[in-house]
Write a structure and sequence with these properties.
Chain lengths: 273, 273
């Protein structure tokens, strides 16, 4: 499926700090190769590609088979350009040939129920909203891996949540439908290669039997060093992970307008009871 | 990666109603083969398996590299049995050799920030909670596909959200940490094979350029018939999809206690501002 070197991928993912070399001895390298791609070639996607990605997405698990998600594929340059602005001026949203906008969609379920005389008030609850967000994320990630298996590159665009109502209007979304994130899709521009980003050591995210925060400070310290090594290698002027990430969630003012997401969702038809 | 017949998988997924045969001409069948497995063999997982699944999960996209998720792997029979009860008595939770509990985890980020003198009040907002839920779902789905590529079976367990506080206590979760769903993992018991569930036609979930609900009633009608055919073939006594699904979200009383999820999350340290 992929011609990557598995051991090299594991080293890139966990850096110097962490991992036994035999960790992924049997795993297809596809599952280790992800990097966020922000530079794309003009090459259009072969016919049938989006159909394939949607089939992969629909084949993924969905809570109680409710299938509470949808996707809008955007190829129009004008719409991509507008989405790029709404996402905070991310140029790759305009330049990638396809933007997939993944939707938490309770409108279809609500309508299908209504057509059977069922009022479906459950969709007004936070739980069912979460079901639709989780469904969308699971579907999207299956499509993402499918895309990467076809040598395409991608990056998720959470920036669409900066302006949920404007995105909904632009894409003609009905009530009870919310653009959870976008996803740029295209062939990577190999003259501007993307790199694998190191992650926290496994011991920081994986707990056996019970949650154990005992070693956390040590793991974060090791990863902070690893993150600095990575930023340096990329000529990125950025503070270590814990400071950079802490600043991302410092307060409402650091959330790019998303501190009002609950209000926006209410307006889009999600009371979040 | 898989020896499945791609065309046969597409037919099973979309039934009679839908799909051009060439839809997935180039897609690895892995992306089409999913079925929820609820009957497992006793066979333990080979050494290094969970390590591999965690590496796949960590290789997936994460919003702004915040890595706002964790996972608890449960192998203890006693804990699996208790989780099975909390999930509404789902026997496969007790019988699968491994349960992976996927966590929306803002506690690590909050602590790492605090250790740098950053108060990180942003984690109190719905947006950052959603980031952690989405991160967990994306990570989990990469692990799920990785597991299936290793011939393992799985099923997501949303039932853990019936009793979020009890699950948190059982697994020793810190504040700002929430078990989004579980995941049974094990080798499928081939004497009780699971079947591919048909999904809605692509046209019902995939919109080009703009959301278009025009054909919805027709798509749902076709799928309702398909769902009845499937239930019949499985000797399941169940109404068509739109009625069955509508009843799942009929009102607060149909949500298995999850109508109080917002309150439970508040108690677990998520004010959801």
């Amino acid at each position: 499926m992929n011609m990557y070197d598995r051991d090299a991928l594991v080293r890139e993912r966990y850096g110097e700090a962490s991992v036994e070399a035999n960790l992924s001895a049997v795993l297809d390298p596809l599952f280790l190769q992800h990097r966020s791609v922000r530079a794309y070639r003009d090459t259009p996607l072969p016919e049938g590609t989006i159909e394939s990605l949607v089939a992969a997405a629909q084949s993924a698990s969905t809570s109680s088979n409710l299938q509470a998600w949808s996707v809008v594929s955007v190829e129009s340059a004008e719409t991509r350009s507008r989405l790029s602005e709404l996402a905070g001026g991310q140029k790759h949203v305009a330049s990638a040939p396809v933007q997939l906008v993944w939707l938490a969609d309770l409108s279809r379920l609500h309508q299908a129920a209504a057509d059977q005389g069922i009022s479906a008030e459950g969709v007004d609850y936070l739980e069912v909203f979460l079901v639709s967000v989780i469904d969308a994320a699971i579907a999207a990630q299956s499509a993402a891996l499918a895309a990467e298996s076809l040598d395409l590159g991608l990056v998720y665009i959470g920036g669409l949540r900066n302006h949920p109502e404007e995105v909904a209007e632009l894409l003609g979304l009905p009530d009870r439908c919310f653009a959870v994130f976008g996803m740029c899709i295209g062939y990577p521009d190999e003259t501007k290669p993307a790199h694998i980003k190191p992650r926290l050591p496994q011991a920081a995210v994986w707990h056996r039997e019970k949650y154990d925060a005992a070693g956390l400070a040590e793991h974060v310290e090791a990863y902070d060093l690893e993150s600095l090594r990575f930023y340096q290698s990329q000529n990125m002027d950025r503070k270590q992970w814990s400071i950079h990430s802490g600043n991302r969630v410092r307060g409402p003012e650091s959330l790019n307008g998303r501190d009002r997401l609950a209000e926006a969702l209410n307006r889009l038809g999600f009371p979040l009871r």
